[in-house]
Specification:
heterodimer; A: mainly beta; Jelly Rolls; five-stranded antiparallel sheet; four-stranded antiparallel sheet; 1 helix; 9 strands; B: mainly beta; 11% helix
Chain lengths: 149, 148
């Protein structure tokens, strides 16, 4: 049997792992998972900025509770300074996102997003997030994960 | 049938609402309400500081979803920098609090946010305690920064 050298295999595996962790800024769809413990929370920082389309006006966010179907309900909170809002996906594993929430902000604004669940049990999710100008055009959007539980 | 004057009813209702929103309760505990909107969130900042029991090791938070019994479940998130925990009261209207959420963030400012899973008004009691590493109370102060 022909042997494949170990070094190229490891290099491909590492590259695949790195690519798997990178979330292209254009996707604006962050997949994640919450561990089994009931207190698990994921936290992200979203940066909204002018990418040439125009300054940020507001951030819109929604969450989708992905398969496997489990008891906990998934929620996402959006926070800017002293302002916070929440939205919950009522049905696990269907094609619908939670109701969309929006939080206004300055032209160059950092927001926090937290994702959590109501009970014990591992969950997978997808969060959709878009920075928008005041005339409803999509503008510069970056994300960075702060907490992964 | 005796009629209750509308003004008296409104004053009583407003007084009750004011008491609920003022968070009048024993130290380390407050009552709050969330409005009907699905996104309604109450936002608090808790400051933990050193006292005669020494420096703070952690902030412990728990809440109870009060009657009337309604569909939404109430959760509280506890955040300090990259530290975060969530806890949810699974049963509305009973006497049991949610499991505790604990963050070992030491002295300083913690964000505490209360929200619910669906539309519908809700009432809750939030308990919060800054504790040293032996579980004794340290300095605890709370401020409400958003009331929805």
């Amino acid at each position: 049997m022909k042997k494949i050298p170990l070094k190229p295999v490891l290099a491909i595996m590492t590259l695949s792992a790195v690519l798997g962790q990178v979330n292209p800024a254009s996707a604006h769809d962050q997949s994640g998972s919450l561990g089994k413990i009931n207190t698990a929370i994921d936290q992200y920082q979203v940066h909204c900025f002018d990418d040439g389309t125009g300054p940020n006006g507001y951030l819109i966010v929604a969450v989708k509770d992905l398969a496997p179907k489990a008891a906990p309900k998934l929620s996402v909170q959006v926070i800017r300074d002293n302002t916070a809002t929440n939205t919950t996906d009522a049905v696990d594993s269907d094609a619908s996102y939670s109701p969309e929430v929006s939080v206004s902000g300055s032209g160059d604004q950092y927001y926090l997003m937290t994702v959590d669940k109501t009970a014990t049990g591992a969950e997978n999710y997808s969060v959709e997030y878009h920075c928008m100008t005041n005339d409803n055009q999509h503008t510069g959007t970056d994300i960075f994960q702060l907490t992964n539980q | 049938m005796n009629k209750i004057p509308l003004k008296t009813t409104l004053v009583t209702a407003l007084s009750l609402a004011a008491l609920i929103n003022a968070g009048i309760a024993a130290a380390g505990s407050l009552n709050g309400s969330l409005g009907t909107g699905a996104g309604a969130t109450d936002f608090y900042r808790v400051t933990c500081s050193a006292n005669t029991n020494g420096a703070t090791d952690n902030l412990k938070v728990t809440l109870i979803d009060l009657a009337p019994v309604a569909a939404p479940m109430i959760s509280v998130q506890l955040i300090k920098g990259t530290l975060g925990k969530n806890t949810t009261d699974a049963v509305d209207g009973d006497t049991a609090y949610s499991p505790a959420a604990v963050i070992k963030g030491g002295n300083g400012l913690y964000d505490v946010r209360v929200n619910k899973t669906a539309a519908g008004a809700e009432l809750y009691t939030l308990k919060y305690s800054c504790l040293n590493s032996a579980g004794k109370n340290t300095g605890t102060a709370i401020a409400k920064v958003q009331n929805q």
